[in-house]
Amino acid sequence: MPKKFYFLCAKYGIRFVKVTLIKQGSHIDSEVEKPILIDMHSTIVESKMKYPKNWQEDEQLEIRDHFNNRRPYLIYKRSMDIATSLLVMLLIFPWLFPLLILAIKTDSRGPAFFKQKRVGFLGKTFWCYKFRTMYVNDMADSRQASRNDPRVTRLGKFLRNTCLDELPQFINVLLGHMSVVGPRPHMLKDSREFSEQVANYKFRYLSRPGITGLSQVRGYRGPATTFQSIFRRYQWDAYYVRNVSFILDLRIMAETGVLMIKSVLNKNKPVPVGKTGMYGRGALSAAKKIA
Q1: pLDDT in tens, 75-110
Q2: What is the pLDDT of residue 28?
Q3: pLDDT of residue 14
Q4: Which value, in Å, is the radius of gyration of the alpha carbons in the chain?
Q5: Cα–Cα dist 236/287, whole Å
Q6: What is the DSSP letter of 188?
Q7: Fewest CB atoms less than 10 Å from the CB: which of 104, 200, 230, 247?
Q8: How much is the pLDDT for 105?
Q9: Cβ–Cβ < 8 Å for 202, 195
Q10: Neighbour-count burial of 119, counting CB atoms closer than 10 A to its CB (0-12 exposed, 13-18 middle, 19+ buried)
Q11: Alpha-carbon distance 34 to 20, whole Å?
Q12: 125 φ, ψ (degrees, to nearest 5)
């Protein structure tokens, strides 16, 4: 499908397209009409935008109204982020951090931590912290990690597959740069490129970036190198921004934990997404479970 077609479907919420097929050499009376379901996840699970009660159709919803309508949730979310990050720092950091730092320093030369500028809430940039999973190289800020990337160390592969490399980002959560749940932050280069490919891509910046998110538990982890993977990841992120709730955050956190455990049990294989993967037939049932 051409890119413009996907843009129009996303913009106007199109779920079905009626295609008229005319047999060669036949008259117009013998045309066959066939409805085709467009295989785009967010068009299946998309819900209406939550507008204020006094909103009129000819008015535009301002960003200030968007946040005011969610003030109780945002207060809860920030409180939960602070409590969760402090809990992780007190219970996990003291014993796991020294072990991982020692393992990283033993596995390859270079610092144990890696920091990179990412795009966050309302498009503001911040320093995002991770455990280093690659050999020190000059392309870390310009080239995404790919499958079987030679830059990734042996230990780095394990850290990436189990998401343990993201643990330092609880520091970002405590500082207010990130949230536990939200759209994943991109490095500056990717953010610019994705914004050029997908209309209204910056809509996802209305939520603080997260350590985990709806896109990730639905199978969209790792590099986004094709238009389809970029666009579908954006659809899940946009769905989350429109439908943020206490229950949705808890479900995403729970499913992330389950996926991490499965990855460890699968002997360092990538986090599995099950039968409801990116393009599987179980997309609708998966959406109902998580959202």
Answers
A1: 999 999 999 999 999 999 999 999 999 999 999 999
A2: 36
A3: 52
A4: 21
A5: 10
A6: H
A7: 247
A8: 95
A9: yes
A10: buried
A11: 7
A12: -90, 155
Which amino acid, one-letter code, is at 222?
G
| Under 8 Å between Cβ of 92 and 118 | no
Name the phi and psi angles at 138, rounded to 5.
-90, -5
Task: Extract the residue ranges of the chain whose pLDDT is less than 70.
Answer: 1-62, 267-291
* Amino acid found at 233: R
Q: What is the pLDDT of residue 7?
A: 55
Strand partners of residue 35? 18
Determine the Cα–Cα distance for residues 125 and 165; give it in Å rounded to an integer: 20
In DSSP notation, 63-122 reads HHHHHHTTHHHHHHHHHHHHHHHHHHHHHTHHHHHHHHHHHHHHHSSS-SEEEEEEE-GG
With vertex at residue 122, the alpha carbon angle to CA 117 and CA 123, rounded to the nearest 5 degrees, is: 35
Q: Which residue has the tokens 């099950």?
A: 274
Residue of 132, 94, 120 whose CA lies nearest to 185: 120
| Token digits of residue 154 | 């042996």
Output the six-digit token pair for 262.
């499965």
Structural contact between residues 187 and 116, judged by C-beta atoms closer than 8 angstroms: yes
Copy the structure tokens of residue 101: 């730092």
pLDDT for the residue numbered 70: 87
Amino acid making up residue 2? P
Longest dimension (CA), the chain: 77
Judged by DSSP in three states, 205 sits in helix
Q: How far is CA 63 from the centre of its chain?
A: 21
CA distances from 192 to 26, 113, 142, 201 (A): 49, 25, 11, 10
Residue 193 has which token pair? Answer: 């490129």
